[in-house]
């Protein structure tokens, strides 16, 4: 009876309530917003208040860059997780973006394995490098802990012992060498202010900087001038809530042209329709003039991606055997990006 109940619990834990009905998706073939101009940049950052903690982040980032680049390490900024759009200043309601930060956290680990130092700009409470292996939904640590025979200590069971030892060894090495800096954000405003700050700090190391922009950034926001101070009361609107959102400026071109003009920049394009994925990725590459767009479909993003560069398109796919053995596709993505970054650095040195 107990075994049956445990099996039922495991079955229920695998129910994927977040999987959408693909047939209900909107038309994504519509043209995207144009790239932000210097005027757009000036207007946005002038009209919105920077996070109060930004100077603290500036100091920490500058110190991290100086130490790690002084040790001749290349540095990658990995952005991860989704941004929120608050609907009230004392926020109760907000619009969120789909992302648990899995790709960003996983990729950060593989960059660290390649000898890069990582600035991890992540959504607060999203998945983090190393601890992601033992989250509340994956290898929940509490399920693998038990009391010692005398009841005085907590022990890890044999199932998790080997994995925990390996991950802990990697984490301790990274921590001892100060190769990972965690920088949190929650709202889209916090993300954009912090991204610009870190980009400008990284610009001093030129082509040794790499940007891996895996965060899911909101397409729309509510301007500060229209955000109410307190919780919106439902009765004030007759049971309806109408929100007038503005498009978030597409600052990727400003990153390429102004914030970190010599760095190599990688962006992502997530779609649900395979017939427009390549077109959307190539359009983004041409619009923002950077080096690589990684295209992926919501339904298959863990098993295949496409690299779109100015010269070609290249699919990276996990074999059926690799997928069954839980090989992470980021283990194939990151070495290829590292090789491209090496070529990028060499090309800048000959200019």
In short:
One of its GO terms (molecular function) is phosphopantothenate--cysteine ligase activity. With 351 residues, this protein is α/β, with parallel strands linked by helices.
Tally of strands: 14
Helix content: 25-40%
Largest sheet: 8 strands, mixed
Total separate domains? 1
Characterization of the model:
Belongs to the PPC synthetase family. This is DNA/pantothenate metabolism flavoprotein C-terminal domain-containing protein. Residues 74-123, 206-321 form the DNA/pantothenate metabolism flavoprotein C-terminal domain. With 351 residues, this protein is of the alpha/beta class. The protein has one domain (32-139, 154-349): Rossmann fold. Helices cover 37% and strands 18% of the residues. It is built from 10 helices and 14 strands. It has helices spanning 2-13, 38-47, 54-70, 102-113, 158-176, 188-202, 252-259, 277-288, 320-324, 330-349; strands at residues 75-80, 85-86, 94-95, 117-123, 145-147, 154-156, 180-185, 209-213, 220-221, 246-247, 264-271, 292-297, 304-308, 313-317. It has an 8-stranded mixed beta sheet, sandwiched between helices. A two-stranded antiparallel ribbon has the order 2-3. Strands 5-6 form a two-stranded antiparallel ribbon. Helix 3 (54-70) packs parallel to helix 6 and helix 4 (102-113) packs across helix 10 (330-349). The longest helix has 20 residues, at 330-349. The protein is globular and about 65 Å long. 33% of the residues are buried. Residues 22-28 have low confidence and may be disordered.
């Amino acid at each position: 009876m107990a075994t049956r109940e445990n099996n039922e619990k495991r079955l229920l834990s695998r129910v994927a309530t977040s999987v959408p009905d693909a047939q209900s998706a909107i038309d994504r073939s519509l043209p995207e917003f144009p790239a932000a101009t210097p005027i757009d940049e000036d207007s946005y950052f002038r009209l919105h208040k920077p996070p109060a903690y930004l100077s603290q982040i500036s100091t920490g980032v500058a110190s991290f860059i100086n130490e790690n680049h002084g040790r001749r390490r290349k540095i990658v900024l990995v952005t991860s997780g989704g941004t929120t759009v608050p609907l009230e200043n004392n926020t109760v309601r907000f619009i969120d973006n789909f992302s648990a930060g899995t790709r960003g956290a996983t990729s950060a680990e593989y960059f660290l394995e390649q000898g890069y130092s990582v600035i991890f700009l992540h959504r607060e409470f999203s998945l983090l490098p190393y601890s992601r292996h033992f989250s509340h939904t994956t290898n929940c640590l509490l399920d693998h802990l038990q009391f010692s025979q005398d009841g005085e200590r907590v022990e890890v069971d044999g199932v998790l012992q080997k994995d925990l030892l390996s991950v802990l060894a990697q984490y301790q090495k990274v921590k001892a060498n100060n190769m990972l800096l965690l920088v949190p954000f929650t709202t889209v405003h916090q993300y954009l202010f912090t991204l610009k700050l870190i980009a400008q700090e990284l610009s001093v190391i030129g082509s040794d900087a790499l940007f891996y922009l895996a965060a899911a950034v909101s397409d729309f926001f509510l301007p500060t001038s229209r955000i109410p101070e307190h919780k919106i009361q439902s009765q004030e609107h007759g049971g309806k809530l109408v929100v007038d959102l503005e498009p978030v400026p597409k600052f990727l071109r400003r990153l390429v042209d102004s914030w970190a003009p010599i760095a190599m920049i990688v962006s992502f394009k997530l779609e649900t329709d395979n017939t427009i994925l390549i077109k959307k990725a190539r359009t983004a590459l041409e619009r923002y003039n950077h080096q690589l767009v990684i295209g992926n479909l919501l339904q298959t993003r863990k098993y295949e991606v496409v690299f779109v560069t100015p010269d070609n398109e290249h699919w990276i796919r996990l074999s059926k055997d690799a997928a069954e053995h839980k090989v992470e596709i980021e283990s194939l993505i990151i070495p290829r990006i590292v090789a491209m970054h090496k070529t990028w650095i060499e090309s800048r040195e000959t200019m």
